[in-house]
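Late entry, written up from scratch paper. The run itself happened at the end of the previous shift, but nothing got recorded in the book at the time, so transcribing now.
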Amino acid sequence: MASSSWYPEAIHSLATQQSQGIQTLLEAEKEAAKVVQKARQYRVQKLKDARSEAAKEIEAYKVQKQKDYEAYEAEHKSQTSTNQQSIDESTNKQLGEIKTDVEKNRSNVIDKILERVTQTHPALHKNLRKIEA
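Output as recorded:
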């Protein structure tokens, strides 16, 4: 009978060991889930940080390019205004010369126009044919 009383204790001991093994596995699974959750949170935070840093870099780049553009515009604006001023002066000079020439030649031009208008040379048209009746 000694062997029969041993059997329930062995089953009980084996069941206890299995129960402890299952409990250990469950605890290990919980710890693994916590580690995975922390890794996910870490990854999400790193992505947020990377986006934030990229946005800062983009903004700094925009500001730098705006400054570059404004400097370029200021540099070339003075050239443009200088060129425009030179063109305006040249145009005004040419207009002055044209007005002087108009005043100088006005009477000669009027005389020539009147001479051409009043000059007449009556003649028959070259296509005119005499019709005999």
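Residues 2-118 form the longest helix (117 residues).
(Scratch paper discarded after transcription.)
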